[in-house]
Amino acid sequence: MNTKNCIASLIKFCIGTVLLSCTSFVAANDEPPKGDTVLRIGFFYPSISQIADRTDILVSMNFWMQEISQNFDQPAAQVQLFDKIEVMQQAYASGNINMVVAPPMSLAIHFDRNSLTDCMIGRRDKDKLDSLLLISRTNIRASSLMGLKDKHLLTPDNDELAEIFLNLLTLKASNLPYTKFFGKVSRSKQARRMILDLFFDKADAALINQTTYDVMLELNPQIANKVKIMEIYPLVSRSYSFVHPDYAMRERLKSNYLKVAETARGRQLLTIYQHDALAFCDVHDLDKFDALYAEYQKLMQKVSTPQKRKH
Q1: What is the pTM (predicted TM-score) of this model?
Q2: Largest CA distance in the chain
């Protein structure tokens, strides 16, 4: 099964679990729960664009959701893909969607915390993270970040956490934003391609995630001789999901969603999605990203504020 079909299958499987749980919930009660009972999910597309094509996702999900709706006599979940986080936030605030799946920094910056309730993340094993890694070629002999000044950097496209982390590193080291610290900045949606570009000396440094780095290292152990890790930002998962408090079936959703990992099919799909397990995420898990963003804003303000002349 190719990567695009695998991702689409995972999403379909999760939606199937959600709708089945919703149906079971209604059947177990004499009256339907009060409030919004239709799940409307918004995915931030740039964060999954490197592993899934927009058309493949939408076509496969819409087809499968129609089947679910017929089999369970239940309104099909509605799924939307968003290219801009601001548009996604507006849709969530207006009630057009009631579940969001997006990178944690983007959720921390753009979403009202009172409108989010605890939900789920996909993650690696308990002793493994999916951290952000700043890596460089070993043959440029950079012993610190300053050794990368004026070099060619590869960075993820449309990734707010990556932007903030890079700026924090370079502002602390040189009082320069990363776009001025590095001689050239190229953006890419393909993390594996970025590692290969370093391996073949086509760039000097790259910001990637830990899971991709580990996979590539396993496929080609020689990468360890050509590339080294310079900086790390610890990260549990690249995407978090939260549900609106007005969604009436959120507790049933959470309890059944965890059961995905208990099935053979679920474990297979989690592996394809580079996840080892599903776990709860708390709204307060976004607090660390608030702190990082506040530190970034403080440093940016310091750099942009004109210095008074000394007499």
Answers
A1: 0.81
A2: 80
